[in-house]
């Protein structure tokens, strides 16, 4: 126990610095982009087909692409996606993804967006149609109905599942180690290879992940309380 405390005192600052420098920025950027993908995908999938032929064709194609995107990223492991993007695409002379950060953010955001889109779609569909009809009866356009009535309520409903997605993403950033990003888990591997304290280092990094996820969980709790203060 004494050795573990000494190890923690020695290496915990380095792990926390790696978390601040790599893990948290990677999580934040990927989640924000993933949330944008999720909202756009959800809106496309629930959009009604217009009567005009050209517009109907365009929306139908977008719906098909959105459904395929969700299916693709939910049906394949994230680590495989990382290998395809970082190692496979550059091998096919698509050099934009040769940068590890670009590859990681691309995969994490698209993967998060695919899963979160289902949460957003369910939250939007859970808003009672009566409220939509009431807003339309007041003269609101379809866009105003979504921005002023539907989306605010859907945002509150989707907080728990989206928070879970954020927490999962934080932990999944450890997979970035396979494409050479020296984030917190990769650093713990390097240190363990040097001092041979393999179990202690992995337990220590697990404790840091637990601390970060606990902070996010507490933040989720207060956010839910704040957004629910006007509900009956």
| Largest beta-sheet characterization | none
User: What would you report as the Rg, rounded to the nearest angstrom?
Assistant: 22 Å
Approximate shape: flat
- Which parts are unreliable, with pLDDT below 50 for 5 consecutive residues or more? none
Q: State the end-to-end CA separation.
A: 51 Å
Helix content: over 70%
Task: Please trace the helix and strand order, writing H or E for each element.
Answer: HHHHHHHHH
Q: Give the averaged pLDDT, no decimals.
A: 89
Description of the molecule:
By secondary structure, the chain is mostly helical. It contains nine helices and no strands. It has helices spanning 2-46, 53-75, 78-91, 100-126, 129-137, 142-157, 159-172, 184-195, 198-227. The longest helix has 45 residues, at 2-46. The chain is flat, with a radius of gyration of 22 Å. The termini are far apart.
Provide keyphrases for this structure.
232 residues, mainly alpha, 0% strand
Question: Secondary structure elements and their pairing?
Answer:
Layout: H1 2-46, H2 53-75, H3 78-91, H4 100-126, H5 129-137, H6 142-157, H7 159-172, H8 184-195, H9 198-227
Helix pairs in contact: 1-2, 1-4, 1-7, 1-8, 1-9, 2-4, 3-4, 4-6, 4-7, 5-6, 7-9, 8-9
How do you describe this structure in short?
With 232 residues, the protein is an all-alpha fold.
